Amino acid sequence: MADGSGVERFSEKSFYLAGFxxxxxxxxxxxxxxxxxxxxxxxxxxxxxxxxxxxxxxPDAEALADLLGAQPLDASEPRIEGDVWRALRxxxxxxxxxGDADTFPERCCGVSLSLALRKLVWLDPGGGxxxxxxxxxxxxxxxxxQRLLAAGPxxxxxxxxxxxxxxxxxxEGGLAAVNLCTPDGLSDELFTYSGSGTLFTRxxxxxxxxxxxxxxxxxxxxxxxxxxxxxxxPRTPEEVDRVLASGxxxxxxxxxxxxxxxxxxxxxxxxxxxxxxxxxxxFIGEGVGGHLVQFALERARERxxxxxxxxxxSDRVVSFFQRCGFREAGPDDVPAAKWRDYDPERRxxxxxxRVDLE
Length: 358
Description:
Structural class: alpha/beta
Oligomer: single chain
Largest sheet: 8 strands, mixed
Number of domains: 2
Order of helices and strands: HEHEHEHEHEEEEHHEHEEHHEEEHEHEHE
Strand order of the largest sheet: 3-4-2-1-5-9-10-8
Helix content: 25-40%
Radius of gyration: 23 Å
Number of strands: 17
CATH superfamily of the largest domain: Acetylglutamate kinase-like
CATH class of the largest domain: Alpha Beta
Number of helices: 13
């Protein structure tokens, strides 16, 4: 995630911490995952310093007390909502104990719903879901989860299926998101773009909007990452500023940055260029790239451009644009200004695509 200097990781963490500030997160962990030496303790300390409150659920009152240095609340109390609210006035993390290990998943999800939490982070040694191809399924919406459960067991032990059924119930009941990850992967799951486990969301929707000033800190390192991976052309700081000013982002569930792009205008001959189109690995396969391109085309039509083009050195990206209605074009089919001061080595490899709007 980091480039060696730590800049990108810091920017990612700052972006997510800003989103958590002033909010209350739910976390669920079995007793064996509550040892003070486990990374959970470090993450809780970071969240406390960030002004984020945490309700930590566990079936083991003694383990909660040892970790937090305070006696946990009992979820069976009739006014648990008020008890949690008052306890959070005095400390950033409040422990809540609920039943035994066998009934922990359903009781935890039930109390999370009664507290109207928006996010629940579930720590499990098995981590996130893995697909049939062995790859981690980093993003699953409620509809996809229901299909997985309807298909029956696929290598998951009964306890894991039980947990997934409770996650389904929590999402149906109103939780916006549930994260499932290992304790060791908690920091990456909460504070990085790519995550470490699976993010479950109630709805599968993507909102694309123009980037605002508050989005630049998250977008700039994504552009740098795309350049480092060879997907995006290198740009000077001035050119990056132009991309940010004309950029747009795709956001899942209103807050998870899923991809970026920008539409640069060429006055002659009424052409617009899609640049810095980059989708986070976590959301590849969710149609994010298509949403970004559609947004760019709509903006170009509104502004009266004759055509939109893009340039890339990736055959995969060319195929993607062709699926979006673009055709492959030659270097003379795009504005001549595009090639002014262009890197000769990259130009020898670059391919262009274009779609006419008139």
